[in-house]
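hey can u run this one w/ GEK bound, need the structure tokens asap thx
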Amino acid sequence: MLVTGKDAIYSSPQAIEPFRFDQAVAEVFPDMIQRSVPGYATIVDTLGQLAGKYASKDSVIYDLGCSLGAASLAASRYVVAQDCKIMAVDNSQAMVERCILHTQAFKSKTPIDVVCDDLQNIEINNASVVMLNFTLQFIEPEQRQQIIEKIYRGLLPGGVLLISEKLKHQQAQIDDTLIALHHEFKRRNGYSELEISQKRSALEDVMRIETFEQHNQRLTSAGFKDVTLWFKCFNFASMLAIK
Ligand code: GEK
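ok here u go:
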């Protein structure tokens, strides 16, 4: 049976280990991401709508770093193009096991294949839509350019990359203000000061965030001709890049 619970992982004082997408995280993931990422539900639903708009007949929709499959399920709700398939990939065994249960429970017209692997091992072919919904920030910065270039090569002409990330702001005072607003968002969602600071420490070396300008530069140099920021709330954003 699929039990999902409330995120209390950092509620008691503990020796902080680097954050991992393990069993404990997978069990509380829907609650964790909803209470931590401003606009998460809007972003996921809109990714589904964008996938619906850009998916073309006989093509593949990739959801890289799918966690429990929220973006894949949103895409499957909106895609009407015939004979598409969705490939959902994550390298966390705990996430993938749960993702399979989630996606099987939802009878989708567009089939969803769930694969447990590092997204760097996945070939991207015949893609009309690729989604990286808060995934690239967990990849080593030196690997990011080649991943974006591989995605670009695997996209059909007119295909899209949908990429959501936590952002850093170039100017320190504005960056501090956006961080403070995000922490207040978490407080209002029931996280304590201890939870906020322990989670921050756990993520410190695991999640390496960049500015919009860095993402834009990488996407443009990979060949994407149009890049737009379609969502931003505090330091969380989602971008649409068209081949
Ligand atoms: C959502 N997209 O709910 N290869 C494959 N997966 C990876 C890799 C990698 N190299 N590195 C990290 N991941 C989801 C939310 S969560 C974002 C994405 C967050 C996976 C990791 O296991 C985790 O499941 C996911 O990327 C990031 O729409 O928790 O902030």
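Residues 172-188 form the longest helix (17 residues). anyway lmk if its weird
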